[in-house]
Amino acid sequence: MMCDVMPTISEDGGPGTDRDSNYSGDESNFEQLMVNMLDERDRLMETLRESQETLAVTQAKLQEAERDRDAFQKQLSATHPQVLTSLVCALCALIMFPVIILHLF
Predict the structure, then answer these.
(1) In angstroms, rounded to a whole number, what is the distance separating the alpha carbons of residues 102 and 99?
(2) pLDDT of 38-82, one tens digit each?
(3) Residue 47 belongs to what domain range?
């Protein structure tokens, strides 16, 4: 049976010891950590850019919807002011009626 012989480990702390190999290992770990951090930053920046684009599109749609709403309100007010007034009064009556009944009891 053959035995594998392990290399001897020097205990004098001279060059080429485990301390040097640990340092190079720590350095490579640090480099990998920096690479990971930069990759994560790039992903976050891309997500931020996409979110900003989505926000800009949504704000533009909101402004368009507000313009449409205002135009419809002007059109409704101009063509049917009496109908609008009576609808508002009826709506207020419907809203207030349950409140009045609840206060009676």
Answers:
(1) 5
(2) 999 999 999 999 999 999 999 999 999 999 999 988 887 777 667
(3) 26-104
